[in-house]
Design goal:
single chain; 206 residues; alpha/beta; Beta-carbonic Anhydrase, Chain A; 2 domains; five-stranded mixed sheet; 47% helix; globular; binds cobalt (II) ion
Length: 206
Amino acid sequence: MRKLEDFFNRNRAWASKLKENQPDFFMQLSKQQSPEYLWIGCSDSRVPANQIVDLPPGEIFVHRNIANVVVHTDLNCLSVIQFAVEVLGVKHIIVCGHYGCGGVKAALENKRHGLIDHWLEHIRDVYRYHQEALDGLKSDDEVFNLLCELNVKEQVANVCHTSIVQDAWIAGKELAVHGWIYGIEDGILKDLDICITKIDEIPSKR
Ligand code: CO
């Protein structure tokens, strides 16, 4: 092994520790996964889904991308939602953004970052939808924080507007879509008080 040997050492130590408390943990988990939660979060290394809610393997189905964006032409994200809802039967979809998001910050900057700029256009759209509220704020920090929150709300709406989620509701399945935001400065999760559980609660599209 030429590189990153430490990762393998750490992995063996981690697996042994888990097995100390529950010797059949991996054996049981290998038979099937039945998570109740789908987490759509940012790729940021500081926002690891399982760790910040302190849940072990097997509990959360995860999709992460830069700035936790849900785009209706993104086959990757749509496939994750479809599999999670229709095959795994998750009961909750959590869109979790975070303050200090580099993707949101880059979208606010007037400079080029390469290919990623195409992806960040989706966040610039969120800015445009809420331009009046954002332009009325006094400081750049307030704009940055509010855009991080508005981006979560927008992506919750995008999840709800997928045919996958709507079909689940039409079929009478129990499914709630949540919008949360995480503080990388204090490690605390905040509920943005969005919880959509049926079709007539879906935020309207402009
Ligand atoms: Co981020």
